[in-house]
Amino acid sequence: MISVVIPFYNEQENIIPIYDKLSSVLNNMGHPYEITFVDDGSTDNTFEEMMKLEDEQKSLKIVKFRKNFGQSAALKAGFDHATGDLIISMDGDLQNDPADIPKLIDKITREDYDVVCGWRADRKDTIFKKLFSRIANFIRHKITSEPIHDSGCTFRVYKHECVKDLELYGELHRYIPAMLFWKGYKIGEVEVQHHSRKFGYTKYNWKRLIKGFLDLIVISFWQKYAVRPIHVFGGLGLLLTATGVLAGGLMGIQRLFFGISLTNRPMFLLSILLIILGVQFIVSGIIADIVLKVYYGQNGRKNYLIEKVVE
Asked: Read out DSSP for 266-280?
């Protein structure tokens, strides 16, 4: 069973063409399938174009948001409604080619990957967009160590269990491969075609780049310290406290044995401030640990994933 999830925002000209191409490819593959279109609060006739397809294909699902919540939320809604063993995500701008779906499916089944990402090796975008994308991919790779070239490409195929409990918000859809890689899933990639945009306009801008970078910082921190936040808060607190005690101790020795006054020594006040800040960081780490235990305990969440159980 194959599920295809596509979020749309103001893409009215692309609805019918992408459905025709997609259904043609999926019909030729011979597998049962379903298609989920998510209207992310479009202000044009995107939803009306989707409704024209309502009676043509029983396997089509249409999810309409009340307002624009963003691509991450739209993908999450699509994943929640997908029932297939394999779930494919792609953009709704016709720049991804449905003809590459068999290639993605073959890669994930033949080589037993959990996720296979599309790699737009020959992008048909403006030089500025390609430049920003290369910079973003470089920064992501350095921070996340994900083993793929093009983590910004939405064209991917997942095994169902990969996205079942995936939390997506903000601009986190860009970092799905990194989040799954950190969880221990096997990530692969394959080169896919990339076409120039024919209809509509790109939704990417500098604001989304900044938001995406801030989200990257958050998930990097969460991946490293989500289970034991005391490790980062406590470590920093101990460092500040030790520095304050050392500096204060040296000045105390100068005052006791050498008679040097501390009243005009800003460093003495700084040492006291460092000790106070250090204690606050340690206490914050302890509180964060307690909150995390409540989070996992009350909601029945586990801080691990089981690949298989042999009985």
From this structure: HHHHHHHHHHHHHHH
- pLDDT, tens digit, for every residue of 26-53? 999 989 999 999 999 899 999 999 988 8
Phi/psi of residue 271, nearest 5 degrees? -65, -40
What DSSP letter does each residue of 89-134 carry, written as one string?
Answer: E--SSS-B-GGGHHHHHHHHHHTT-SEEEEE-SS--S-HHHHHHHH
Residue 246 tokens read as: 């050392």
Residue 227 pLDDT class (50, 70, 90 cuts): low
Distances (CA, A) of 108 to 86, 103, 148: 9, 9, 15
CA-to-CA dists, residue 66 to 8, 22, 128, 243, angstroms: 13, 26, 33, 53
- Whether residue 18 contacts residue 90, with contact meaning beta carbons closer than 8 Å, is answered with no
Q: Using CA atoms, how far apart are residues 216 and 171, in angstroms rounded to an integer?
A: 9
Task: For 55, list phi and psi in degrees, rounded to 5.
Answer: -95, -5
pTM of model > 0.85: no
| Cα dist from 266 to 251, 271, 273, whole Å | 11, 9, 11
Beta carbons of 163 and 128 less than 8 angstroms apart: no
pLDDT at 310 over 70: no
- Range 2-225: architecture per CATH: Alpha-Beta Complex (3.90)
d(CA 135, CA 149): 12
How many other β-carbons are positioned within 10 Å of the β-carbon of residue 208? 15
- List 157's β-bridge partners, or say none: 88, 116
d(CA 40, CA 101): 23
